Amino acid sequence: MSMAAVGLMFGVALGFAGYFGGFGAFIVVAVLGIVGFVAGKFLDGDLEPGDFFRTRDRDRRR
After folding, report:
1. For a pLDDT cut of 70, what percent of the chain falls above it?
2. What are the φ/ψ torsions at residue 32 (nearest 5 degrees)?
């Protein structure tokens, strides 16, 4: 599925949530959509948990 189609579906879902559920539902759908996107990236192998955490090298501080 193309990213344009995914974006269209996400936009429609946000529109319905905003129209029928108000601003609170809009925010909940947006946050859960982002969480689902990140989870999908992990499952596809595009992201790894180490990408969000970096180790501190003491040599770089100097």
Report:
1. 85
2. -65, -30
